[in-house]
Design goal:
By secondary structure, the protein is α+β, with helices and mostly antiparallel strands. The chain folds into two domains: 98 residues, no CATH class; 135 residues, 3-Layer(aba) Sandwich (Aminopeptidase), CATH 3.40.630.30. It is built from eight helices and eleven strands.
């Protein structure tokens, strides 16, 4: 089973920043509006407290908020940032399972389709959930193999998701179900079909990351037998919070 460190590599590869560069111990990410995951700075080697200032300046030079991703083993950095008036933002749980555990039942006919590139209706569904052009650009940047999932319930659009593979693991991102189509099993069918697609594209495992505040999604992943193998969170300077 992939561990948290490996799955963070999968996340970086399947949901890539517009650009990255090393600065001392830091990996700087340029997000271009693609959200926190592609904009946060993370430590690739143990930093000192004095190293924080260089990362802050670099993020501000990119016109990005001062935002750090805190991974397993970053407890000292976490404490330094806390003392420097950085707030904890969006704690995330990392989920994973063998693809065989989810590839057990296909969705009913015409319920879930795999398609690349995203259709206009999918882009509209994502837009309604706050997933705008910057995040759609992330999907286009991700290398193959990748696909989107388009869902239909009662002959109407139901939701959409994005899936890509790296290192033998398929990771699902941006899973959204329209509010009026929820409680019909759409998200569950997405996960089953994503697992079949993962197997067809050389992946042995399927993973997802989910904010701890999203109780419904976390309950879904647990009910599917996925294992919570780690967590990460962000630290954002309070002056940059909007």
């Amino acid at each position: 089973m992939p561990d948290a460190r490996q799955l963070m590599d999968v996340c970086d590869a399947t949901w890539p920043a517009a650009a990255t560069r090393r600065l001392g111990p830091w990996l700087l990410r340029e997000g271009q509006g693609g959200g926190q995951r592609v904009s946060a700075t993370s430590a690739k080697a143990p930093p000192t407290e004095d190293d924080i200032a260089s990362a802050e300046a670099a993020m501000q030079d990119m016109n990005q908020p001062r935002l750090f991703q805190i991974r397993q083993g970053d407890s000292e950095l976490d404490a330094w940032l806390d003392a420097r008036d950085y707030a904890v933002v969006d704690p995330v749980t990392i989920w994973v399972a063998p693809a065989t555990a989810l590839a057990t039942q296909h969705a009913p006919r015409v319920t879930v389709f795999t398609v690349w590139e995203p259709l206009a209706i999918q882009i509209d569904i994502w837009a309604k959930a706050g997933i705008g052009p910057g995040r759609i650009a992330v999907m286009h940047r991700a290398p193959q193999p990748k696909t989107t999932l388009m869902g239909r319930i009662n002959d109407h659009p139901g939701g959409t998701a994005f899936v890509a593979v790296h290192g033998g693991t398929a990771m699902i991102h941006a899973l959204e179900v329209l509010p009026h189509q929820r409680r019909h099993g759409m998200a569950r069918w997405f996960m089953h079909e994503a697992a079949f697609w993962a197997q067809d594209n050389g992946a042995s495992h399927i993973a997802a990351i989910c904010t701890q505040a999203n109780a419904g999604a976390n309950a879904l992943y647990a009910s599917l037998g996925m294992e919570a193998v780690g967590q990460y969170h962000y630290r954002k300077h309070r002056e940059d919070m909007t």
